[in-house]
Structures are given as structure tokens and as C-alpha cells.
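Crash report, auto-generated. Payload:
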Amino acid sequence: MTNDIFVWVEQFEYEAVGASWEAIGAARGLADEQGGDVIACLFGGDGVEALAQEALSYGADRVLLATDATLDSFRVEPYAALMAQAVEAYEPETVLVAATFRGRELGPALAVRLETGCIADCTELAFEDGELVATRPIYAGKLMSKCVIPERRPRIFTTRVRAFGKPEPEAEREGEVVQLDPAMAEDQIKTKVTGFKESEGGVSLADASIIVSGGRGVAGPEGYQPLEELVDVLKGALGASRAAVDAGWIPYEHQVGQTGKTVSPDLYIACGISGAIQHLAGMRTSKVIVAINKDPEAPIFKVADYGVVEDLFKIVPALKEALAERID
Amino acid sequence: MHIVVCTKYTPDSEAKMSVDEAGNVSWGDSPLIINPWDEYAVEEALLLRDEYGGKVTVISMGPEEALEALKHAVAMGADEAIRVWDDACAGSDTLATSYVLARTIDAIGEVDLVLCGKSAIDAETWQTGVALATRLNVPSLMYTINIAELDPDEGTITVERLLEQGRQVVEASLPAVVGTIKGINEPRYTSFIGIRKAAGMDYPLWTLEDIGADPDRVGESGSGVRWPTVFEPPVREGEAEIIEAETVEEEAQILAEKLLAEKVI
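Recovered output after restart:
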């Protein structure tokens, strides 16, 4: 067992997922404190090798690279099998995986293969008396839990997207790139990826730095129009409350809250959202919250930094104009 | 087709959670319910049963409270329900829980498809489904928003998985573990007849011995993760600064300035 730290570098269509660099940053901090190397694990089809240098520049000391057609699209079986094999060969004490949808499959699958623990969706990682302690939200952030993996190794953690800062890349950083062979042949893998239908609208809620969200107050599907215009000006993402999704005004992909996505943007603008406890649970860790609601008694004002008691159909277009003037 | 659905009980999503000085978690007088994500799994199982025939068995690892989840699933229309528990299971993380569920499914025998909710709203690890599939050495199809094709005779399934960038289409062999998300269906309400049926139903309790599980691999001794401390998060400080002006345009100008000063734009 070494005190090295493995970090999975997730890529989608040959581009790295930003949350992986956040995980490398978290690993760098831990390695600088307790020693050991940060080893990036980069798997994919031919062409992903270009990301190895990027991983080094964000703070990895070495890269384990596997390129093969079986690894082209993420599948949990071949990825976890290869990662498990690499863990057995390199014996890292710690494995970090960004808590994206795919990362939250890889972490636990790896844990089962290695008969070890995986702590999900960590918002903080810190050594306390030599033990690596993870802090994570439970009950949609209504409570927090401190977790440890006292005995088994490696200890695996998935790191919440946007909870750890993204490091500044240093282009001149260098390190060894080691080639790995895949652990499974195509005929051993029980799943096949046969297509991908990309979502419209670009920015995904989980990694958006600005979210404009609409609730019951938007009063119908067409009510999202002014919100979308504000989203365009801010280059953000469009969110929604459960009430709006359940009413069929907007697809589920946009839902923020306990049965939707948990988000943590720099700016969250809640329009016509009353602020049910389940919704608050999904966005309360946003850095700045703006509440726009006609009802001054709406609970959303209790968690907001700024509030405007106003009809959203008047203030949202006006805010769009005011911001467009100030943003190039 | 024999479909097994894994369920869990949780406090209601409306519950106000708190922690006392001894560190015990409380949900006040809120009811215990079936984990809301699991309702999608139960509904999908019922729809598939109605289309292809067969039966739906719902399972849950848990103390007596787990009956809440099983009863709800039976009231919705599940055919059989099994609770698995032993006091040794307390403190199980997802590593240990997936072991118990995998042993249970092995003990059930002929199973074509396993469904579960994408996650539970209490601990929210999202881990049990994929861990279970890994233990059973069958395909893991989490975040499924649509079962596009199912051929029980050929033993194949095609699903759409909702990921950050869009929908990934995946073909797999059966048996498989499918994790359902909201949007796959609209879970039915329980009927009066369903609730009556659930109340009169027999809920067998399977022990570790019944499923051939090693007691050292469950509970704390079978787990990797411990969670010694639970606490209430710090309350968001201060009150909202309410922006008021003569006109909406002025309010918008003031708010825009504030947001620029916050450096969040």
C-alpha cells in the first residue's frame, strides 16, 4: 500500500469533464499534506491521449492511460474492471472520482470489486488525527454527515461537482504517462452503447455557474420564455421547481430539488418559486440566491440574499435589459 | 417474467430533519414512506408484468419499519413481498447492503429483471443499485428514463439512460439491474382495494440463514464506511435584502448592480 491517490479523469467525446479537474485539485491538496503522488486514470477511445497532458497540468504527477475501442463510451463494467486492476497493481490508499452520473456508478462498482468502502458525494475532505474524514450532505442537505473508511483500502470517495475549487492549470507541469491494456474484451462485456441523444440547450444544471429557475409562478410552458432570455444573457442554465415539472410545463431534466438535481451555482435566481423544503434542499448551497415572487411571505425569501416582491413577468425582462447593458 | 423490485423506507420528503445532542436523527412526526424513487421502479415493474406476464416480487432489507415500503408496493399491485433482516444488518453501508440484496435475489432463484429506484432520499448515495448489479455480475442500467425494448424470450433489453449531456442508449442482456428515475412513468396512486390487500398480506421475514449470507459480511463488520457524526448544517445567515424602488426598471437596475458587485456574473 502506498499513500498515492488515484483520480478518475472522466471524458465525454474526447473532452474532459471539468469536475475531474476539481477532483484532481482535491487530491493535490491531500497529497501535498500527507505525501504520495496524484495518479490520473484516463480511459477512452483513440484520441483521449491528448487529455493526459491536461491532467498533468491540473496537478497529476503521473497518468495511467488506456485507449481502446471497448473504452470509447463509458460503461461501468470495463471501466471498473480496469480501474480495479490498476488499483491492485499500484496500491493507492485513496481513490477520488468526481460525483457525476458516471462517477457515481464507477465508485461503488469499484468498491464492490475491491470489497472496500465508497463515500458518496463528498463536499469536504480533510485529515483529522490522521484519518481522512469526508463531509457529505444527507436528506438532500437537510443534515450533514461525517464519514470515514477506517479499515479497508483503498478508501474511495466521490466528490460533489463544484464543491472543490478547480485548480489553475500549469502548462509546464510534466509527468510520466503509463499505458495500460483494457481488463475486459468486448465479448466479456454484457452491455453495448448503441446511441446517444444529446440534450438541447447546452449547459447542464450540475455544472452551471448561473441558474435561472421558474416555478408555479411562470403559469405555463410559455412562461419560461422570459427566463430563457435571461439565461441566454447570463450564459447559464434553466431550472424548474417540481410543481412546474409535474404540471408538464418543462421536462424533468430541469428539475431542482430533492427529487431532481442538487445544484450549487454562484448565482441562483428563483422566479415564482415559493420555496418548498424539498426545493430549498436542492439549491441552498448556492453562493448568491435571488428570490423573485409576488408573495412577500414566500419561504424562498428566508434563504435568499436578495429579494424582489414583484411580478416575475415584469422584473425578469427588466433585469435581462439591465444586465445586457452591463455585460459585453 | 419474474421481476424483483428493491425498495427502502424513508422519512417523508417533507420531513423536517433534526439531530439531538446524542447524535440521534429524528424526522419529528412525519410518516415513514416508501422511498419516492422506488415508486417509479414498482410502477415500471407492474407495467412490464401487465405487458409480458409473470409476477412482481418486492424486497426490502430493514427492520419492521421496512414493511411501510413493502405494503405500499403491494397496495400498488406487487404480487409478493419479502423482508430481509437480522439485527446484525444494522449499520450496513452500500457494500454490505448490496451483498444482502444479492444473496436474497440468489435465494429467490429465477429472476429475469431487477428494478430499483436510482437512489434513496435519506442517505442519497445512489450506490446500491450499481453495487448490486456488480455483485450479481449482471448489467447495471442506472438512470433509466425509458425502457425502449424488452424481449424476455431473447433475454435482451434496451434502455435510455439520462446522463448530464443527454440520453445514452444501451443494449444489454437479461437478467439486468435497472435503476429508474422520474420521467419513466407516472406511479399510480394506491387504491382502497390495494390498501386492503396490502393490510391482509403475509410478509415473510427472511433471515441471514435463509439467504445463506455470512454474518461477517453484513452490518458494520461487512461495511467499509462508518458515519460517526451527523449534524445540522449551519443556517444561511441574515435576511434577504429586499429591493424596492419606484419602478420595476429601477429595481432591475439596482439588482443588476448588486449582482455585479457580488462578482457572480
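Post-recovery validation: Residues 5-188 of chain A form a domain with the Rossmann fold fold (CATH 3.40.50.620).
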